[in-house]
């Protein structure tokens, strides 16, 4: 099982505030997939595995009778519980490798930006056990290095960010390397014939400079750097904000930058 990287409440609050918003396109992709495979039958149960602060859990809630968010991090779940008013959503501390539900009881096993931390063979064994016939798996994440765009200053901004990524990638572990491979390993390991691997799903997000600095802090590699060398982490964050402000000049407080991301998604159906 993965080490608990999301164990501090302060980090969970930063995560909830600054992690890029949930992708409606990805949620809709997963929902259309499961609705298509279950021929319009009512959807009873979704599991959101590695649900974190419950961001995707809530976007699944209107489409299922019940949604259960699972995570190994109590601090992530504590933020999730504070945010949730939906009556059909509940949360539980549980690992992806031992899902706390009955055999053949789940319509959708969903994992957003989390499956790279799971022990994949155990997670897939459990997924196969809990899915109903016609039930589906949807696991997705995004490519780690986004591109920034702002008038004719995009190159300068991306040079600054490349230095940030270079520093953070010194802390890359196997999980993050799996993200670079766009979940190819997960796709190949799924013991089902009916499966799809969709990559290069574009997204554009507008962020102010403080939101970009917040986003960097919400990446767990930055949290790892903070744990190992707080002064270096703080210096990088302060210098990055300063350099961004210098590049944008008088527009630094008023304008947002475009951040271009690419998502990827693995979908599978158990017949
Ligand atoms: C980057 S967060 C994503 C949270 C949420 N799905 C979202 O998209 O905002 C990854 C989450 O996976 C959880 N996690 C990591 N390994 C896990 C495991 N083996 N079982 C359950 N949760 C796990 C972490 O605690 C963390 O909350």
Automatic annotation (TrEMBL):
Pfam families, sorted: Methyltransf_11
UniProt xrefs under CDD domains: AdoMet_MTases (cd02440)
Listed InterPro entries: Diverse_substrate_MTase (IPR051052), Methyltransf_11 (IPR013216), SAM-dependent_MTases_sf (IPR029063)
Bilayer-crossing regions: none
Domain Methyltransferase type: from-to ranges: 47-138
Gene3D superfamilies documented for this protein: Vaccinia Virus protein VP39 (3.40.50.150)
PANTHER family assigned: METHYLTRANSF_11 DOMAIN-CONTAINING PROTEIN (PTHR44942), METHYLTRANSFERASE DDB_G0268948 (PTHR44942:SF11)
Protein name per Swiss-Prot or TrEMBL: Methyltransferase type 11 domain-containing protein
Organism of derivation: Ranitomeya imitator
């Amino acid at each position: 099982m993965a080490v608990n990287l999301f164990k501090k409440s302060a980090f969970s609050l930063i995560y909830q505030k600054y992690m890029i918003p949930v992708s409606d396109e990805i949620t809709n992709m997963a929902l259309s997939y499961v609705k298509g495979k279950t021929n319009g039958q009512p959807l009873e149960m979704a599991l959101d595995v590695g649900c974190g602060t419950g961001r995707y859990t809530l976007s699944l809630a209107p489409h299922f009778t019940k949604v259960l968010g699972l995570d190994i991090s109590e601090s992530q779940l504590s933020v999730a519980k504070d945010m949730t008013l939906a009556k059909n959503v509940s949360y539980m501390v549980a690992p992806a490798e031992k899902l706390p539900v009955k055999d053949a009881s789940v319509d959708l096993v969903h994992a957003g930006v989390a499956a790279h931390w799971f022990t994949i063979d155990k997670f897939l064994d459990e997924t196969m056990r809990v899915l109903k016939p016609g039930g589906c798996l949807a696991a997705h994440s995004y490519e780690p290095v986004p591109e920034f765009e702002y008038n004719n200053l995009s190159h300068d901004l991306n040079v600054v960010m490349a230095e940030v990524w270079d520093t953070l990638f010194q802390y890359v572990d196997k999980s993050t390397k799996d993200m670079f491979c766009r979940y190819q390993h997960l796709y190949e390991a799924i013991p089902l014939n009916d499966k799809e691997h969709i990559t290069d799903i574009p997204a554009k997000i507008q962020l102010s400079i403080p939101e970009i600095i917040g986003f960097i802090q919400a990446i767990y590699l930055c949290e790892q750097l903070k744990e190992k060398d707080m002064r270096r982490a703080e210096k990088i964050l302060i210098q990055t904000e300063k350099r961004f402000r210098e590049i944008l000049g008088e527009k630094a407080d008023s304008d947002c930058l475009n951040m271009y991301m690419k998502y990827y998604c693995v979908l599978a159906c158990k017949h």
